[in-house]
Amino acid sequence: MGGCFSKPKPVEVKVELSLLEKEREVDGLSPNGKASPLGDRRPNGALGHCSEEEAPPPCLYSKPRDYVEATICHVKDLENGQMREVDLGSGRALLIKEHGEFSAIAHKCPHYGAPLVKGVLSKGHIRCPWHGACFNIASGELEDFPGLDSLATFQVRVEKDKVIIRANKQALQAQKRSKPMSRCSAVINSNTGFSHVLIIGSGPAGLVCAETLRQEGFTDRIVMCTADRHPPYDRPKLSKSLESTAEQLRLRSPEFLQDHDIEVLTEKEVVAVDVKLRAVTFADGLRMEYRKLFIATGSKPRPMSFQGLDMANVFHLGTPADANSIARLANNRNAVVVGTSFIGMEVAAALTDKAHSVSIIGIESIPFKKALGEKVGKAIMKLFEANRVKFYMLNEVSEMKGQHGELREVVLKSGKVLRADVCVIGTGSVPASGFLKQSGIHMDSKGFITVNKAMQTNMEGVYAGGDVVVFPFPQRNNKKVNIPHWQMAHVHGRVAALSMMGKPAEVKTVPYFWSAMFGKSIRFAGYGEGFDDVIIQGDLEELKFVAFYTRGEEVVAVASMNYDPIVSRVAEILGSGKMIRKRDVETGDISWLNDKSSQ
Q1: What is the DSSP string of 512-568?
Q2: What is the DSSP secondary-structure string of 333-376?
Q3: What is residue 587's predicted lDDT score, i.e. its pLDDT?
Q4: Whether the predicted pLDDT of 20 surpasses 50
Q5: Helix (H) or strand (E) holding 570
Q6: Which of 214, 286, 421, 572 is the most exposed place for a label (fewest CB within 10 A)?
C-alpha cells in the first residue's frame, strides 16, 4: 500500500510548462474545482462580528497575477496514498493522490519549512514529519498546530490521462497563506482604557487567540499586553539559536498585527485583576477594563535559594537579550548550566562550539530520566559527553561566588568548585500566576489556573490557556493536566477564542514536543506522564531509535531520533482515537505502522 513508509515507485516526471501572462482569473480554487472553504462566520450577539457580505474575500491573490501551468505525469504514475514533490519552473509543489483524486499544495510546512513529502498522508490531510502540524490537502487549511499559516493550494486537472497543475506564481513562491481575517470596526482611541477582548501574554496561546477571533469575524477591539519588550516571537528557538535577534524570531511582523487590528502593548506587566469590575491594573498604574479576558502568562523560573543569583553573568533564559548575552559571554570562556531541563540541555549543546568548557549540574543521576526514561536519557548523556560536556550529577549548587558583581565560581554541595564566566539556570519553572492571588480566579495548590474544556475559568468572561493552566485532557478521561508544550498553547488559544464567540470547542489534539541538540532532533508525541515501561526499537548507540512509552498494556506516548516520520505517524493513530497496544510494539516489527492510520 502507499504511505509514508512505503518506497515510492520511480516516476519519470516530464514537466511541460506554459506561462499564462497576467491572467485576471482568481486562483482561489481547491484542486477539485470548488471554492476553498472559509470558517463559519454566523452572527453572534455576544461579541462584534462581520456578516457574510462584510467578510474578507476568500482569495489571497485578488489582483491579476502570472500563472504557470505544467503537465506533470500520467494518472497511473502515482498510486493512491503516494505523494511527489514536483518542480513547476517558478517553484515547487506537492502532488498528492488519494482515493483516485489528485490535489496539489505547497511542499513546505509553514512552521519551520519541513518537506511535507516526508510527512504522513491520511484521510484527507497531511501531517508534518517534524512537529506534527496538520493541513487539509484540498483547501490547504491548517487543521492542527504548531504554526500560524495555511498552505497555498494549486489547481489540478486531468486531460487525456495527463495530470496538469496550474499555479499562481506568487503562491508558489510564498508557499503559505494566512487565513482571511476581519478588522476592527469600532471607533476607539488607542488611549482608551477599555478593550472588548484583553489578552495577557504574547506567547502562542495569546497570539492564536487574537488571530482566531479575527478569522471568525470578530470586529471589536483586541488588545494583547506583555511584560516582554518585544511583540510575539518564537521562544523555543531561544535555547537552540542563542544569537538570534527578536526581529529574526518574531512570529508576526508589526505590519501584520496592525493590518489586522491586533494591538500589542509591550513592557506592560499586569499586577492585579478585578473580576467584579472587569478590569486589570498594570505595574505602571495604567488600568484597563475588558469584556472578555484571556490569561496566557506562561511560566517563570523556579525560585532557587542559593546566593549569587543576582550577579550580572547569571541568567534565566527568558528573552532574546538573555540568549545573546549568554552566547557573547561564553565565547572561549567557562560556561556552567544548572539543571537538566530541556532548555538547560539545549543551551549547553548550543554553547559547546563557543565556550572553552561546558559543565552541567543535575540533581538526578541521568538527564531526562523522568521525561524520556533511563535508557534514552543515558544515550543523550553520552552524546553530550562526546561533545566535551562535563556532567556533575546527583549534585546541587551550594553557592555562587563572584567579584565586583560578576560570577567567578560555582560551589557544589559535594565541595567541587567550578570556574564560571557565565551561568544559565535551567531548573524548571512554575506558573506565572502570582498576580491572581486576590482575584478569586481558581488555582490549584501549585498555582496553575484551572479551566474547563472550553478554557473558561470559574469567573464569567475570564479564560486562560497555555503553560499556566491545568485543563481536562480527553486522552486521560478528562483528568486535569498541565502540558507545557508550544504546540498545546496554540490549541488552547484557538479553543478560548471560539468559546468567546459562543462556538462549541474543546481540545482535540495529540500533544507534540520537540528538542534539538547537536544537530539532532528529539520528537515526542502523546502524554507520557506516569509511564511504567519503555519499549525501544532501533539503535540507541547510533541515536537512531523509537521509544514507545506504555502504561499497563497501552502505548501512551512515543519519542524518536532519526526515525521520521514515525512520531507523526503515531500521533495520527492516537489522534484518530485508536489504541496502540504494548504487545504491538514489543515484537520488533513495527511495519504495521505504515498503514495503520490510513485504514
Answers
A1: EEEEEETTEEEEEEE--TT--EEEEEEETTTTEEEEEEEETTEEEEEEEES-TTHHH
A2: SEEEEE--SHHHHHHHHHHTTT-SEEEEE-SSSSTTHHHH-HHH
A3: 83
A4: no
A5: helix 566-575
A6: 286
